[in-house]
What does this fold into?
Amino acid sequence: FRCAMCEGLIFIKQPNEQELIEPIECPRNYGGCGKTKKETRFHLVEKKSTMINSQFIEIQEPPERLRGGAQPQRLLAIAEHDVAGVLNPGDRVTVNGELFVRSQRKAGRETPIFDIFLRVLSLERQNIPLEEVNIQPEDEKTIKEISKRDDLYDLMKGSIAPSIFGFPRIKESLLLQLFGGVARKNSDGNRNRGDIHILLMGDPGVAKSQLLNYMANLSPRGRFTSGMSTSAAGLTAAAVQDASADGRWTLEAGVLALADQGLAAIDEFDKMSNNDRSSMHEAMEQQRISISKAGINATLSTRCAVLAAANPKAGRFDPVSEVPFTSQVNMSPPLLSRFDIIWLITDNPVEEDDRRIASHIISNRLAGISEQRIEEGLDMDPSEGAAIEGMSRSHDGSEVLGQDLFRKYVAYAKRNINPIIEEDARQLLTDYYVETRRLGGESRDSVSITARALEALVRLTEASARVRLSNKATTDDADRAIRITRTWRYTLMGDSFDETTMQSGVKATKRNTSLELIRFIKDEYDRTKKPVLLKDIMNFCEKTAIETGPVEEILEFHVKKGEIYLPQGYGTYAPMD
It folds into this structure.
């Protein structure tokens, strides 16, 4: 500081980050004039001052350490010098430092309420995937023994939500999603994601939310959120203004950034607004989020698998509707195409199945222990017992893996196993893709499978090999991937799967009818040079066995699109030039 009276310089250290300490007087023993703060003024000399970089960081304990509905603890940390400015929201770090307290200030006065801060001395990014899952040598031995079992896949499938009856194929796909494929970088800098995205479309009450909850708890770094209460900022990152005097803007990571290298389960996915849901496009395919908010430009990693659930707009799916199942859900085609697997779950009454489900639900409910007795300490929590034992029995007596051991198995596989697909398996996947493309669909503009689906097949094949802790993906793994893909595609659209139907929201039969009608109107108009009457169009439909019911609706749709118009009012049609 420079004294206004004698131009003398005074150097003062600043130990408090939240307050600027000025000189009390101009000291004589340093050649000053001895004037006090009231008698003179002190000006800050920036060029003579020593500035250091600083960054305020809020650290939060990892969610996997929490039990039940506990909220994660947070601590404000201050990084200075070379450790400032190296972290981004959502990063997982080990921070070393010393704690200190600062009194809160209100209206310029200090209060007897103190905030705790951590002064960062060193920090280390946790670059190793799933490093927080502690795998002991005895755990590794158990994992390798389990991987050699003949009934490995049945054991793993049965360990996913054992209290939920049925869904063998869906549980198998969720198992592969947990392990995921191998993310790879190419020489040109392009990145191929390894995470598998799954969408569960189903009628109400078919246990979609239960599956999502279980998967979020089971997966290392799993996060659960509901679309009804989630915004785009909650999914990606929120720009928050500091409560401090300077009011600077900071970024707080959302669900997708916090679930990096894990799984994000999003319930009620269709209830989100279109603007909020649009933020998912980049996060799912490129697996990063570009943030440009309040002058902050940053890129966050979202290398997580997305498991989403959606309900139909009309309450239940209508199988006989002209609208395809994918359009009965409030989701855009570009977003649907980013899912590797789309399961359709309908609630159809079948007496034999209903009886088995009812028996399973009742026996599962009676096998549980009263929550009140657990809270009072009269009984042990059965879920904690299963986690300690590693292996346990479900209520029907079948053997299942405890969640703790399952989590360690997944973490070990993702950390150590990077499968390469063998030549025979590659040929099998190529043959399936080419054959499916050749078969086509019901319409001339139908596309039965796209390259995006081929990438999904590769990811599923690699995940299947990871379950066995194998670094080679064989034809068995490729067969499993093809079987799951065939099953969900058949469930969704039957034998004639059509990507164009998903993208346009119009079934192939209706698209064919539209093409025939437009071509007839153009041919008739070119031949007669007169508007084509509605009765002539109906006669043409009867001759060519086209259903006449939706004809007027189709014609009205094409009038709105501007492909045809009504030259002499309703009932007359002509093509646009």
